[in-house]
Specification:
The complex is a heterodimer of chains A (695) and B (88).
Chain A lengths: L1 E6 L5 H9 L3 E5 L6 E9 L2 E7 L11 H13 L3 E7 L3 H14 L3 E6 L1 H6 L2 E3 L1 H8 L3 E3 L8 H13 L13 H14 L4 H4 L2 H9 L7 E7 L18 E8 L5 H9 L4 H23 E3 L7 H9 L5 H18 L2 H24 L4 H19 L2 H17 L1 H15 L6 H8 L3 H6 L7 H10 L6 H14 L3 H28 L9 E4 L7 H35 L10 H13 L6 H9 L7 H8 L7 H11 L2 H13 L4 H11 L2 H28 L4
Chain B lengths: L2 E2 L8 E7 L3 H9 L7 E7 L6 E5 L2 E5 L1 H4 L2 E5 L13
Antiparallel strand pairs in B: 1-6, 2-3, 2-6, 3-4, 4-5
The chains are: A alpha/beta (695), B alpha+beta (88).
The structure holds guanosine-5'-diphosphate (GDP) and magnesium ion (MG).
Amino acid sequence: MKIALMGNPNVGKSTVFNVLTGSNQQVGNWAGKTVERKSGIIHRANEEIELIDLPGTYSLTAYSQEEIVTREYILREKPDVVMAMVDASNIERNLYLVLQILELAPRVVIGLNMMDLAKTAGITIHSNKLALALNVPVVEIIAAKGQGIEEFLTEAIRVGKLKKDPIADDVPYPEELENRIQAMERLLSDTIWATKYPLRWLAIKRLEQDPEIGQTWKSIPQTNQRNRSTDPCCDPGDPVKYELQESVSLPGEALLQAYEAEGWSKDHFEMAVADAKYQYISKILPEFRVNENPVKRTWTDKLDEWILSPFWGYPIMVIILSLVFWFSFVASAPLGGAVSEAMAWAADVIVVIMQWGQMPEVIQSLVRDGIFAGVGAVLAFVPQIAIFFAFFSLMQDSGYLARAAFLGDRFMQLMGLHGKSFFSLVSGFGCNVPGIMATRTLEDPKDRLITMLINPLIPCVPRLGVMSAVVAAFFPGSRGAFIMVSLLLLSMLLVMFSALFLRRVVRQKERSAFVMELPLYHVPTMRNVLLPTWQKTYSFLKRAWTFILVASIVVWVLSSYPQGVPMNETWAGKMGGWLAFIGQPLGFDWRIMVAIVFGFTAKETTLSTLGILYGVAADASQSIAQAMTGAMTPLGAYTFLVVYMLYIPCLASVVTTYKESRSLGWTSFGVAYNLILSFIIGWLIFHGGQLFGFQ
Amino acid sequence: MDRFLQDLKPGERARVERIEGGGALRRRMMDMGIVPGVELEVVRCAPLGGPLQIRLKGYYLAMRRGECARIMVCASNREYSEPSLASR
Ligand SMILES: Nc1nc2c(ncn2[C@@H]2O[C@H](COP(=O)(O)OP(=O)(O)O)[C@@H](O)[C@H]2O)c(=O)[nH]1
Ligand SMILES: [Mg+2]
């Protein structure tokens, strides 16, 4: 039996799903989309049930990627039962989707969630009367406390096992509309389409000229997928793909034209149908909802007084974001350090074993300096990423993320971006990988792409660390702070410029609208925060793993062959020599070029690479930067800082961009754009600086 | 006098009369419950011409001024007479 959880965003679908499936989840993506697909198999009463957590949607008209996924699933895969979740504290708008579901799916159970919130807001809902009004079973739930979830499922199974489809009450449409729907029904009732979908729904969609009506889609299970892992968690594979089998035009073209002439265009039908549904909801609402104290101020009202305040909102946001950053990127440093040390220790142990086994020196070096050093550098920032994802889930579930988008929207609008891009860009300061992944909350794919492509221009914590060490060496005292601020300002300026520039490059049919719900505040549950954190961290690791491993080996080979020669004669050194002509206009010697090339695996390694190249063995970053002061002018150093800050952030972020955009073309474009931009800006600064007589 | 949602001050209430233009945006508004006849309240505005926070049907919505400028409203105490079908 296939059961799907459906409802508006933030009504508690995932909470119910997580409680029911526990860790027994399959997390992947929907075919061709970067929308998470979560399903799980559960067993109840000798029945195997596939439960699907559909993305939240406000209606069944496709708008965002999430909504397209949900709609396609309901239309094409036809789950046996739909568990329609409703937020009791916001029932009026929630029922709009329920009415749409009822028209399409024959077997529906309503889960009336957030009963606790409704109660504190002074709303009483009589679920039995709601069930009576719509003629659909209703179960009361408080998902966050685990109440009513099992009953909800039991009811869904019961409905799924009924011999005949239950009949829910129809939405009464006004007469002029009803007549037209019936006329269309008569035309369609003899076609085979009427056997596939409910007739009334079909007629309405035909009147609205829905493009999917008339198409047959076949779902193809992806059995031949090579790398389909058997891992119970985080399967990246797309379980099904759809293929268009045939597309026929349904009868009724003449009727549609006649209606058009009467002023009933497709837009008009849409509006009239929506309007009738809302009218119907308002009509039946008093039957089951008692609003004891409608003007009572809820927690959300009191919190928003501060959090959304034009005056206090921004300082509060700075405090919250600083806390998140501090925890994720500063407080987590010892954990990252521990990971590095553990890796170094493991490398040593393995090398000792290999020495004992008389393995050749080369292999030992490959393992220690290549694999463990490279992979370790990436693993060391897994704690950062995990903690950041935990906070991200926390902010998203609690409802703060939407508020941050509200406050940040004005600035994003200046760049032609959406308020939700704000958070992704801010996250980039911590690490570009989660920043790029955070673009998933953006509805419009083009907005998403642009946000993803400009994210790398924002310097992440590791880059800022390297930069501040170099700045401290070249610009001692208060000048250093000034230089650092100038670099950050430059990066912001370029982010803005690039956003506006990419707006022109990335074609967009229609500018996306900023119409966003500000959900009530919720206290997130532990499970809801930790499960996605684990899933995201794990999938990041899995994605990055092979790439990082290969890249580490490549870097090692380049820098150790031919063997036994000084650095500038290894392949890497030679490469630096060839690349020196690119660096020359900017005053870079081959060493800097090598460091830039190697920095690609992970930028925090740049300092130690430079250390090796300048012949400073010590690990202390200060001494390495000090060694550089002898070889470079301050102007040269500033140019280096600018180029270092702006060129492709690191391999992990490029891999993430590719995985998230699913486009090799755009990923390469992003890499090329960053490279070219950084060198152009570097050139301008170097020559501009010389012109004005800076040294 | 035609007024648009964008012109309301924080704390003011109004009733939706008409949504101008068509396409995805109007459908989106419909999905969020903005249909003719619905009563709205502007709760607050983000500074510097940022988005508006709007309350309707017992929940909160954030919308940009540009989008609000397409929603024509009338005073909320006036009785809404016509059965509401927008695009007529
Ligand atoms: N107060 C309260 N909060 C809940 C309840 N159910 C879920 N939540 C919270 O509502 C938020 C959104 O839930 P989620 O399951 O992510 O919603 P989804 O978007 O529908 O998947 C989370 O912070 C939950 O902890 C409930 O019954 N009462
Ligand atoms: Mg969810």
